[in-house]
Each structure stands twice: as structure tokens, then as C-alpha cells.
Amino acid sequence: MGNVTNRDPLNLLWLQSGGCGGCTMSLLNANCSNLFDTLEGFGIRLLWHPSLSEESAMDARSIFDDCISGVTRLDILCLEGAILRGPQGSGDFHRTTGGNSMMSIIKRLSGVARHTVAVGSCAAFGGITATGSNPADACGLQFEGDSLGGLLGRDYRDSSGLPVINIAGCPTHPNWVIETLAALASGMLNGQGLDVFQRPRMYADHLVHHGCTRNEFYEFKASAHKPSDLGCLMENLGCKGTQAHADCNIRLWNGEGSCVRGGYACISCTEPGFEEPGHPFTETPKLGGIPVGLPIDMPKAWFVVLASLSKSATPKRVKENAVADHQVVVPAVKRMRSK
Fold first, then answer.
1. Residue pLDDT, tens place only, 167-184
2. Residue 33 lies in a domain
3. 170 marked ligand binding residue
């Protein structure tokens, strides 16, 4: 996408609610020399960010008021972190300078925003903040888990006609955020660009499994038994890369790695409800020796047959390397005769 220079810049306001700030930390690792210059190059002006801006809390409150009143045009509202509705729907668990609840401010700002964006799985679905008994009554902007609703309700649409855009992830990949904002600035993101959970399809139409360096081990069902092993992490160590919608192994983090490349199973953090799988993240629940969470689109019977055939055909190299922390058997060299 080229720079947007022929029109007024879009005003972006970034708020943080019930969360850890990890999506902002991730954003600061984007593949660009300067985040603010990059946004400006796409025609986006940052009005305020609670961690990155110099303005005081009172200055920020003036910015909120100007946006709500229409003195300042609000083009993009980004929320990081879940909305805290407690206690008893008052939102008083999270109050801002001036005495208003963050929940009420988010409602008012989302009512005037041209686009509303949930950054991270907490803002999108409730995420980690909504786990357990959820005493803070945390929820996402337009989803509560995998159900439509959340703070703004299933029928919410911004002034452009779009629902909340859910850049889900825990944390989000920095380029998912920048590319989504750039697409909004250029007018290239519409309803067809979002999946059923309102995630941008430019990353959600992929699976973490795509591009995984352990795919040969997966194909032969040559499985790791401990995190340092080279083998597939699905059968024993809880990896959900075949079910998680994200391009983490295609669009590498920091240009180099991903969870599974670092030896840690994919926990499917872009999906609603990932935070409470019902079992330890690094264990694979099984029924009759078969993993419960099978690859997306694959019937159970097919998986059983393919797994059995694959294991019986596993080369010695793949089998031995799968349970080692380094390559112990290299691929054979075969002489190719000219034809």
C-alpha cells in the first residue's frame, strides 16, 4: 500500500482497559524504523495512547470530550484489553480521571467512531481477563467468548457500516495491527475482509500449521515427547497449530520465529475461549489414544487411518530426529542419473 498524502490524516485514539498491555509491547516490535512515522505515512495521526503519548490524563480527557462532542473527528478507535463491566454492570472496577467508568467512555466513543477496532483477544472476546469466575464481568467489544454481544451488542455497526474489527491474538502480531490500520486508511477493508469472528482475513484465512518447520514430523506422526524435541507437538504436547487461524509461521515474529519454532506448542490464542481449554496448555487430551482436538476440516475416521499409515511408513531419519533436540540423522544422498 502506498502512502496516503492527498487527504486529511485519519485520527486514531487508542485506549487500554482490562489487560496486560502486551499488544502494545508487541506493536513496538513492528518491522518499521519508527511506528509513528509509519502510521503517518499511511495517513494516520495518533491522537493519544496511554503508554506512548506525552499528554497528561487531564489532557487525554479533553481529547475524549472533543471526540465525543464532534470537535475532533474520531476516525479509528482502538481498544486494547477487555471491558470491565463489574460490579453489577456499573463499570466502576475501571474508572478514569474525571470519575467516569472506562466502560461508559468506550460506549460513547464507539458511537461516534468511523471505525472501531479491538486489538488483542481480550478486547475482541474477553480473553485472559475473563477467565475463571470472571469477577470483573469482563467481555469483548462485540463478543463474549464465541457469542455475539459483548459491550456494544450484536447489531453494533460503526459509522462506515462495519462491525467491530477483531485483531485477535495474545498478543497480536504487530504487522496484523499495522496492516489493518493501513487498510482502513486506504479504504480497502470491508465486510468481505472479515471472517465469522470479525478477524481480518489477511491473517485469519491461514492456519498456524501453514509453514510450520515441523510439518514433516506431522505428516509421519513422528511426535515430540518433550518441548526440546524436534518432532510434532500435536500428539503429546498440546499444539493446536492445525486448528488456530493465524499466519504465525508464514509471517514470522520479529522476522525470525514463532511459538512452535521456539519449542512451545501453539495454544490457539487467536480463537475465542483459548484461555480455558479445560486441560494444561502443554498436554494433548486424548480419547482412546486419539487426540480430541483434530486438525480443522478432517473427519476423525480419516485421521485415524492416515495416522496409522503414516506411522508405519515413517523413515528412520524422521523417527529418530523427532525425539532429539538436534538433527541426529541427515537426509540420505541419492545419485541422480541423467536421462
1. 999 999 999 999 999 999
2. yes
3. yes
